[in-house]
Amino acid sequence: MTKNKLRVIPLGGASEVGRNMWVFEYEEDIIICDMGVMFPESEMMGVDLVLPDITYLRDKVANIRGVLLTHGHEDHIGAVPWLIGDLGFPTVYGTTLTLGLLSNKLKEHRLTDKVSTKTIAPGDKFQLGCFTIEPFHIAHSIPDSVGFGLTSPAGLALYITDWKLDHTPVDNWPTEIDRLVDFGRRNPIVLVTDCVRVESKGYTPSERVVGDAFDQIFATAPGRVIMATFASNISRVQMAINAAIDYGRKVVPVGRSMENNTSIARELGYLEVPDGVLIRPGDMKNLPDDQIAIVCTGSQGEPMAALSRMANRDHRQISIQRGDTVVISASPIPGNEVSVYKVIDNLYKLGANVIYGSDLPVHVSGHAAQEELKMLLNLVQPQYVIPFHGDYRHLARYKQLAEGMGFNGDNVLIAEGGSIMEFSQNYGKLVSRAPVGHVFVDGVSVGDIGGAVVRDRQMLAKDGILMVVVSVELQTGNLVAGPDIVSRGFVSTRDSTDLIEGAKEAVRASFSESYVVPARAFSDGEETAEGNSPAVSSPAARKIKEVVGRYLYERTRRRPMVIPVVMEV
Amino acid sequence: MTKNKLRVIPLGGASEVGRNMWVFEYEEDIIICDMGVMFPESEMMGVDLVLPDITYLRDKVANIRGVLLTHGHEDHIGAVPWLIGDLGFPTVYGTTLTLGLLSNKLKEHRLTDKVSTKTIAPGDKFQLGCFTIEPFHIAHSIPDSVGFGLTSPAGLALYITDWKLDHTPVDNWPTEIDRLVDFGRRNPIVLVTDCVRVESKGYTPSERVVGDAFDQIFATAPGRVIMATFASNISRVQMAINAAIDYGRKVVPVGRSMENNTSIARELGYLEVPDGVLIRPGDMKNLPDDQIAIVCTGSQGEPMAALSRMANRDHRQISIQRGDTVVISASPIPGNEVSVYKVIDNLYKLGANVIYGSDLPVHVSGHAAQEELKMLLNLVQPQYVIPFHGDYRHLARYKQLAEGMGFNGDNVLIAEGGSIMEFSQNYGKLVSRAPVGHVFVDGVSVGDIGGAVVRDRQMLAKDGILMVVVSVELQTGNLVAGPDIVSRGFVSTRDSTDLIEGAKEAVRASFSESYVVPARAFSDGEETAEGNSPAVSSPAARKIKEVVGRYLYERTRRRPMVIPVVMEV
Q: Which intervals hold domain Metallo-beta-lactamase (chains A, B) (predicted)?
């Protein structure tokens, strides 16, 4: 730990969307900014969540002065319940709405009494260790979002994530450009900024244009309106409520997170809803269809969320009917396109009309586009920049964008996960790497499964598995029962009796005295993490595996996982 | 088979992109239009190709008068080698380039001598059974594309797939609007048209705008240009060659299908390349970087294609270097976004600059947008329309588009795969359904695997598998060896010894005398197609499965597939 330098480390990986968790460290003081989860990529089969890797902090837990949260999205607060204990329960600082959304999670994990939180607001200024913390308001797709100025003896660092400029935000609270100007005058040493929309030219439109689109839809839809969006996008929900009121519709929040978030936001004053506007699904039957607006989850085609279940005729309370107008008020996150389109197809099959994509401006991003990113650089004039919250191409293009403005490209640090960077006046460098990997949450345990298990699932998904079970006599090694072959995901045994019989014959033949295990050690690369008992790793087992694997490949060109089990009796 | 009616049946499923195969049947005469493959969806794990289902034709093979191909894309000709034999080797009709691309496939399948083909051209008019066939030229993203007028005693049917209007196509041959006008005057009974871009407002831009973008790039790129596109998009390749010549670059086709298609197209006169312009990868070392343009496959992020391998540093001949300009001249097909973005990320990591998406117009679609679709309806004035080559939402929106123009919505037939529709003057109806399913090609055999096997792979991919093997005494049913537990893709046994030990203990306990199999039959819904031997379906086996499944779920909330194997000794 270098003296006099500010250390900045992205534990979630700067180059991955999600899992945001940043360490700002000056000598004996550590501040953590955000603690989010990442949703698994499609190859991470069967995994529920991916957490940041806190290995770097394990020996430094006593130095943690606090956790600062910027806003209430899952990829910024979702990991708090999972990690806060291992981090020694430092105090968590956040705005009212952010802490309100967090408190729900803490309750679910039974941590309410263990975690201390402190409400902050833009304009505050407080000390945590040697750091002076200055939150300021930014516009995003959830209200009450802030960025942080963090001043240590090394200088001023700015942490600005998930931001845009919006001159007409729904809560009437634009990004505080005046604060950015002030910070800019203090010669910040480093700016950490999101860059996920660096591919988009111009400026991101205001949230307000969606409100205009909603007006048009809510006024003219012949029957019910069903609007799907992120439950955390309170501004979007507010505009739906406003349009509903203007056109005489009651609003029905549907979906657990939608109901929760709407309720928390309302309670804390972030959602304005006159009494009597919100109703429950059961109350709908008393109303004509054109007086109903349902606001629900599922805008990403998530299988368990409300809209997907409605599209699958699988929702207990809502059935899609002819004449419904469904609005998909979101853009598919890369990877979700097929799920979203399947939901839309099914909604059409059920007779709904669906408004999505570029039909009408029913969605705008919460992130800055190229011109806003350039403006921030000009306002803040940092010595160094760390772009993040994007994939590698976004970081690389941000660097190009900065260079195009005359910014020194060497001062734009492209940080992979775990990069340890150090800064002070006119000094900025990648010095080493912290150990970071994917930490999976699968089922109820954290870290229960490793990369090898996920790889096995991928192999199983490709060609299936074949189990070959024999009983052999302990003394002689002779076959006394079997082989029995059970396959899953490989081939329809009913249709392929000959193939399976042939494999059995090959096994039997291998037990005859003349068979010699080929000298070449067959290596499937199957060094899995799952321990092998002697039943699967003995010479007899290896022989079976080799024989069956080769037989099947020659006939089918497929490589199912072959698991031999040799019972010695 | 109704007399006096034209039967129209999509065997590939009108509502799926790909697998195009249409049957036009009048009494004893059958014409097949197109015979394409579909690439598997991500849930169809481990499957290589999906073919149309020709069950409907099995008893009618003698009635097949010919196969008409519209153009050389995989989803229109890819199934010919797989199915033409089962269909009795009817003659295949296509334009010069289409048959040229087909001949390559027939050679690979050793069918060249068995399949008879006949070259046709726009303006031809010929008889097949009672059908008069009239091909006419349409613009698409591959040259030499046609639509067909098919006249039977029932009336004129128009089959127009994969088309757009392009007034400045690269081959100077626009869609023959005059032919459409002529057909329109003959009161066609039914129009079959693609509608995949019905979500797009306005008109699809001309292929020519890509040429302008290529000019800009090829002129200014500091080093090599690497342009990735579909190998079948000969027009795109032509424009790359034109720009290369204009700016002093040699052209290197890379990727098996790119090399093949370029060669076939050139041979047949569809690609104009002066001598000396095309070079081989090995010749590049003699040239400065800014005199090189590589044209390669992989624009969809396909793992085995050239660009992905270059991005993974896995291509034998080409290594990406700093200063390369890569152009992704394609739009990701839904489902491919993540693969494409990963390739782009990796290219940036290797120091390339990448031009993609909306940076510059480096790609336009080959399909008609809303205004073109409307224009076709006005020109042709069919009595009935069958929109296809889209997902359900496209078909539904096409119907809305037609209704918006005053077309009678009841006369737009939304046809699921296998729909048997019949037409004559002022008559059009869905009369029944042909049996169609997914026919998988997996490994080397067709139809080898069924839906159940694919479902098993999905289950394995999600939670993995656990095998529990015991030996029991035949007479007493007592446990004599085991239980041995082997898991794959479930949990790291090394880390979860307690869990596995507990499962073993539960199995042992279940063999004690006091254990009673619960009355409720546990049903995992695991009615798989793979036959079960007694070793896995006996009462003892079912007991083990129930006990272990319950134990694991209670502790982990996961449901791995549990396969009990009971060896009786």
A: 18-214
Give B510 to chain A, closest Cα distance, Å: 20
- Residues B221 and B242 grouped into a single domain: yes
- Confirm or reject contact between B463 and chain A (CB < 8 A): yes
Q: What is the pLDDT of residues A415-471, one digit of tens each?
A: 887 899 999 999 999 999 887 766 666 654 555 455 666 667 777 777 888 888 888
> Quick one: DSSP state of residue B469?
E
Report the C-alpha dihedral over residues A285, A290, A294, A298, rounded to 10 degrees.
Answer: 120
In this prediction, residue B522 carries a pLDDT of: 31
* A487 shares a domain with A403: no
Domain end, chosen from B414, B446, B478, is at: B446
Over chain B (569 residues), the average pLDDT of each successive run of 10 is 90 63 96 87 63 91 98 92 95 97 93 97 97 97 96 98 93 94 97 95 95 96 96 93 97 94 95 96 95 96 91 94 97 90 96 95 96 97 94 95 95 90 96 77 54 71 82 79 81 70 88 54 35 60 87 82 80
- On whether both B187 and B241 belong to a single domain, the answer is no
How many domains, in total, are found in chain A? 3
Full domain range(s) for residue B118:
7-202+365-446
Neighbours of B275 (CB within 10 A): 5
Give the end of a domain, one of B399, B419, B446: B446
- Which CATH number does the domain housing residue B29 bear? 3.60.15.10
Residues of A in contact with B489 (CB under 8 A): 45-46, 453-454, 456-457, 459-460
What does the alpha-carbon distance between residue B489 and residue B498 come to, in Å, rounded to a whole number?
Answer: 17
Q: What is the pLDDT of residues A15-67, one digit of tens each?
A: 455 568 999 999 999 999 999 987 665 555 666 678 888 999 999 999 999 99
Q: Measure in Å the smallest separation between the Cα of A346 and chain B Cα atoms.
A: 8
Instruction: State whether B386 and B316 are in the same domain.
Output: no
Considering the domain architecture, whether residues A27 and A63 belong to the same structural domain is answered as yes
CA distances from B301 to A17, A405, B228, B336, B556 (A): 20, 32, 10, 7, 36
Closest residue of chain B to A43, computed from CA coordinates: B461
Chain B residues whose CB is inside 8 A of the A491 CB are 448-449, 453, 530
- Give yes or no: A109 in active site: no
- What tokens does B375 get? 């224009």
Q: Check the annotation: does A73 bind a ligand.
A: yes
A112, part of any domain: yes
From the list B396, B453, B467, the residue facing A490 with the nearest CB is B453
The answer to whether B478 faces chain A, any CB pair under 8 Å, is no
Pair (A501, A550) in one structural domain: yes
Reduced to 3 states, what is the DSSP secondary structure of residue B401? helix
Q: Give me the catalytic one of A53, A194, A290, A463.
A: A194
Number of neighbours of residue B397 by Cβ within 10 angstroms? 22
Q: Are A351 and A321 in contact (CB under 8 A)?
A: yes
Do A230 and A327 have their domain in common? yes
